[in-house]
Design goal:
The complex is a heterodimer of chains A (about 140) and B (about 220).
Chain A lengths: L1 E5 L3 H12 L3 E6 L15 E4 L5 H7 L6 E4 L4 H13 L5 E5 L3 H9 L4 E2 L1 H13 L5
Parallel strand pairs in A: 1-2, 1-4, 2-3, 4-5, 5-6
Chain B lengths: L1 E5 L3 H12 L3 E6 L2 H11 L3 E3 L5 H6 L7 E4 L4 H13 L4 E5 L6 H6 L5 E2 L1 H14 L3 E7 L4 E7 L20 E8 L2 E3 L12 E7 L3 H8 L6
Parallel strand pairs in B: 1-2, 1-4, 2-3, 4-5, 5-6
Antiparallel strand pairs in B: 7-8, 8-11, 9-10, 9-11
Chain lengths: ~140, ~220
């Protein structure tokens, strides 16, 4: 599978490295060159410097033939805009956006977008740990 | 009209001021607490601290009954989300400010049809000054895919004295009207242009210079 990861955040870098180690083709997009350091030396995937909002940058990353795109920058709004562009303009079949704000996440889920909300997932897991799970 | 302005920077500030002066009901949302306090000093209750990209915030300030929501922050992704959330709440008219001209496609793609792109606008004006003398851009349509322009026909123009149908006008151009002193003429094939006429035309992107060549002549510039 060919996956584009927008945002070389901690999550983005880890996701990219994992996908590569499992044999997938990966392109990582980030605005800052220094973010790519998180990928370590000898990263087997491609890195593209620029903002995911820019269609040319997405195209350079290979958006026209990507099987999936994950947008995990630190900005909810950038993520959701990139995700929508990836789906509408490039027709990428699987697109996932990270959004910290649960309400905004819910609004876009209603609009048919695939959203991963770490706030909800994290608080749920922590609650289960505190309450001893199950309950 | 009830207008919600999102983003209290320079554009938002003067837009709010102008709207209030014109007698409209305005609400200005600014995310940053410090900036919001400064705006309150100027506008009182009109300025509210809050993140306009949040559905709940927009709902609380009455976006569903707003006639217009104008998203004019300095961040394109925020402006897009504001417009989408406002539309979701039922606001009929949303306007998005485009900061980076390259992002305008994203606005249009995501169904935000009314955009204001000052960078692009000024760029075009600069370019017109340099390359397209004789043409005054009046209005951009559909994100610049087409524009309405004004041209002045001089007495020595090759178009003078000929009916419109013989003018060999470029494709993707349409003469909308001819102003001759106080008269407004809706041109047909038989209409004959005179020196001193002002022509209003609709042209596709990048075709205005061909229209100029046909109506004013290329050598005159």
């Amino acid at each position: 599978m060919f996956v584009i990861v927008v945002g070389c955040s901690r999550v983005g870098a880890r996701l990219a490295l994992q996908l590569v180690s499992e044999g997938h083709e990966v392109a990582v997009v980030d605005q800052k060159q220094e973010s790519f350091r998180r990928l370590g030396a000898g990263f087997a995937g491609k890195t593209v410097l620029g903002t995911g909002l820019d269609l040319d940058i997405l195209k350079r990353a290979g958006a026209e033939r990507a099987d999936a795109l994950a947008t995990v920058t630190n900005g909810d709004n950038i993520n959701i805009v990139v995700a929508q562009v990836a789906r509408k303009h490039f027709g990428i079949p699987r697109v996932v956006a990270r959004m910290y704000d649960p309400e905004r996440a819910a609004a876009y889920r209603e609009m048919g977008m695939e959203i991963m909300c770490p706030t909800l997932i994290g608080s749920q897991l922590i609650k289960e740990k505190i309450l001893g799970g199950g309950a | 009209m009830f207008v919600i302005v999102v983003g209290g920077g320079k554009v938002g500030f003067y837009l709010t001021k102008t709207l209030i002066e014109a007698g409209h009901e305005v609400l200005l949302l600014e995310k940053d607490a410090m900036k919001a306090r400064g705006l309150e000093d100027n506008f009182g209750d009109v300025a509210v601290q809050g993140d306009g990209t949040e559905l709940a915030t927009l709902q609380n300030v009455g976006a569903s009954r707003a006639d217009v929501v104008a998203a004019v922050t300095g961040h394109d992704e925020d402006n897009i989300v504001v417009c989408q959330m406002a539309k979701k709440l039922g606001c009929k008219r949303v306007i998005g400010r485009v900061n980076n001209p390259k992002n305008e496609d994203a606005f249009l793609m995501l169904d935000i049809k009314t955009t204001v792109n000052s960078t692009q606008l000024i760029y075009h004006l600069v370019e017109e000054q340099v390359g397209l003398q004789g043409i005054i851009p009046l209005l951009e349509l559909r994100g610049g895919k087409a524009e309405i322009v004004e041209l002045e026909i001089s007495a020595g123009s090759p178009a003078v004295g000929k009916p419109v149908k013989e003018l060999n006008l470029p494709e993707d151009c349409l003469l909308v009207s001819v102003m001759r002193e106080e008269e407004i003429i809706f041109p047909r094939g038989e209409t004959v242009l005179s020196g001193g006429d002002t022509v209003i035309a609709l042209t596709a992107r990048g075709k205005a210079h061909l229209l100029r060549d046909a109506l004013i002549g290329s050598g005159e510039v």
